[in-house]
Design goal:
- With about 240 residues, the protein is of the alpha+beta class.
- It folds into two domains: about 1-70, no CATH class; about 75-244, Trna Endonuclease, Chain: A, domain 1.
- It is built from eight helices and eight strands.
- It has a five-stranded mixed beta sheet with strand order 1-2-4-5-8. Strands 3-7-6 form a three-stranded antiparallel beta sheet, with no helix packed on it.
- Strand 1 and strand 2 (about 120-130) form a beta hairpin.
- The chain is elongated.
Length: about 240
């Protein structure tokens, strides 16, 4: 729980000022917690009640924590579809207003096989979150910062290069969001396992870990360059098809 370590240090310094610290600790150890009443809620409410923490101090503590972890809330999205479709696709549309949901009017051959459309470019969106690969816990607990030395594993699954022109990968850490844009041909050559589901020909998945993420650095782009990168990746796709 890297994101809680700094907060815990700040709270411990405040708790040291309590006149009845041992009594408080015994009480804390005996409590049974249930959502939304947890350990931190009890600690902070006690500090406020005892006058050790002021309301302004609480606001500063809260703002500092959120400032260090601006995307931690994304790890609280539990349903994979809500994260991958609702959040990720909506996020990209905010960054690139020209992106549209595909339709048969725009693409007569469309039958749900890709996610977004940009002036003739068929785009598949894949999203994942960086978490501690060795921890068995809810996502928001094992969420990692971008400078963490712990191993992470992200799985971009159900990739079907034959169904789109360009892939956009969205990877979330608790402090940054990173983007990669690849042509379908480039994804096809990097798939690490194929036939993810029985009978699904042309489908595979790609595993991105702390020890191979550098292999894709040529495809990483800044958020304000996404539209340009999508068009450039499409040009590479067209050239790859022409050369085959």
């Amino acid at each position: 729980m890297e994101h809680l370590e700094h907060l815990q240090e700040e709270l411990d310094a405040l708790l040291a000022q309590l006149p009845n610290r041992e009594e408080f600790q015994d009480r804390l150890n005996s409590l049974v917690f249930g959502y939304p009443f947890n350990e931190y809620e009890y600690v902070i409410s006690t500090l406020l009640a005892m006058g050790v923490l002021t309301l302004d101090g609480y606001h500063e503590l809260r703002d500092s924590y959120i400032g260090r972890n601006p995307y931690l809330y994304i790890f609280e999205i539990s349903a994979p579809r809500s994260f991958g479709e609702s959040w990720a696709q909506g996020h990209l549309k905010e960054l690139v207003p020209g992106l549209q949901k595909p339709s048969k009017r725009a693409d007569p051959g469309y039958s749900g096989q890709y996610d977004l459309y940009l002036e003739g470019i068929r785009i598949e969106v894949k999203a994942s979150r960086a978490v501690d690969a060795d921890m068995d816990a809810p996502l928001y607990v094992k969420a990692l910062a971008s400078d963490s030395t712990k191993g992470f594993w992200m799985n971009f699954q159900q990739a079907k290069p034959g169904c789109c022109d360009v892939f956009v990968w969205v990877a979330v850490w608790r402090d940054v969001i990173r983007y990669w844009v690849l042509s379908s041909h480039e994804v096809e050559t990097n798939l690490t396992s194929r036939g993810q589901h029985r009978g699904n020909v042309g489908e595979g998945q790609l595993h991105v870990r702390h020890n191979n993420i550098q292999n894709f650095e040529d495809y990483e782009v800044k958020p304000n360059k996404l539209e340009e990168a999508i068009r450039t990746a499409f040009d590479r796709q067209v050239r790859a098809i022409s050369a085959s």
